[in-house]
Task: structure prediction
Amino acid sequence: QVQLVESGGGLVQPGGSLRLSCAASGSIFSIAAMGWYHQAPGKQRELVAVILSGGSTNYADSVKGRFTISRDGAKNTVYLQMNSLKPEDTGVYYCFVDFRGRRWGQGTQVTVSS
Result:
């Protein structure tokens, strides 16, 4: 059984930084993609960033130049470095892994507020 465990959320002031982590455990191999979605209060979940098995990345326009996604293949872990955070970045961040279907983490809360 595949499990995703997220960490790194919290409260930060505008302009600050946070680093989210998501570790996948279980019998996993040949992961096609890993990434992050953001769900702002009262809104639908939206894709923030994805990293494919070959290492290529894609970002939502709203986070380009501020967020960086990376992956440690040996640890089956994906990271999201978030810099220059804005209040509109507030919400729950969900990681996912595409391995025999899409698997989701439990979500971690990020609050950007002064």
About this structure: The mean pLDDT is 95. The radius of gyration is 13 Å.
